[in-house]
Amino acid sequence: MSEVRLRGVTAGYGREAVLDHVDLTVREGTTTAVLGGSGSGKTTLLRVISGFLRPGSGTVEVGGRTVAGPGVWVPPERRGVAYVRQEGALFPHLSVAGNIAFGLPWPRRRHRDRVLELLELVGLTADLADRRPDQLSGGQQQRVALARALAPRPELVLLDEPFSSLDAGLRVATREATARALRASGATALLVTHDQGEALSFADEVAILTLGRFRQVDRPTVVYREPVDAEVAEFLGDAVLLAGTAADGLVDCRLGTLPVGGPVPSGEVQVMVRPEQITLTETGTGQLDATVRAVTYFGHDAVVELDLANDAAHHPLRARVIGLHPPTPGDRVGVSVVGSVRAFPRGRTAAGTDLPVAEAS
Ligand SMILES: Nc1ncnc2c1ncn2[C@@H]1O[C@H](COP(=O)(O)OP(=O)(O)OP(=O)(O)O)[C@@H](O)[C@H]1O
Question: Which keywords label this protein (predicted)?
């Protein structure tokens, strides 16, 4: 049993609380990605769980055992928690095998079989075992760091932005190898990142941390499609926010009358549409007509800025279309919205902060 549970955890440095009565559960054998902006407290959270920082209040449980709480303090080395940092921090004077064996308990340090098994687990070949870290690519070094962390069969693996120093291609390959290795080892894991795509693709659950609290913790598809408020929606991807009026499961906005998914407030609302929900067709065949103002081409897809024909204020609107045949500026197109949209009450976010008043495309 290696579930992690935080209840009412407050922690910080000096007087200022970085984490403010935080609750979080990571189920046994699953991975949760903690997504937050710079300085939101992601590393502080990992320090509290690993035992490098004492919480001011609340309890931390790892594997059903309280490791921090009123009158309880288990030191880091007795928590069964492994920590992989941004830079793997391998020992430069030891070989790959030596680095991995360092993570094994003393009597097993000479067991080459276990080292080779761990290399295979992280997707590296046995011929790398005798190289020094400076003879490896950045992605290979991170995989060795992961193998070293998994060597003592930890109950919990904490990953602190372990892919952020890698370039795009290596990053994806290393991320996939890490996800596979974690699944195969059965470890519970917590990944800290500020990369939305990484959080959504890597983890079983995504936890959004802002202002010292978790705003939403749920499966990737749920936090993306059903964000709790407009701020979370914008934090977790591209979002088109529009003013609207909601009633009876429908909302009126400058994209027309659209069905609302999830909770349906009534009255003045902020409408959230993902740009990929806005599809372009031949002019006259969509729900609305528009003129293409600008196109940003990314290869696999393109972002198209549109001027809606019925919009006297000329607020541009963003659509995301597949990159096969993107339109060109000046084209006239039909515009439709696929699926339901979200509607949030105007005025306050779920966290109690004010919503932006202006429309954003
Ligand atoms: N040792 C420290 N002493 C004092 N303040 C600290 C210390 N470490 C972090 N902080 C402050 O605590 C806040 C949260 O820091 P933390 O490192 O947890 O954020 P983060 O979300 O991991 O950020 P990043 O994504 O930039 O690494 C920041 O305001 C930071 O300046």
Answer: ATP-binding, Cell membrane, Ion transport, Iron, Iron transport, Membrane, Nucleotide-binding, Transport
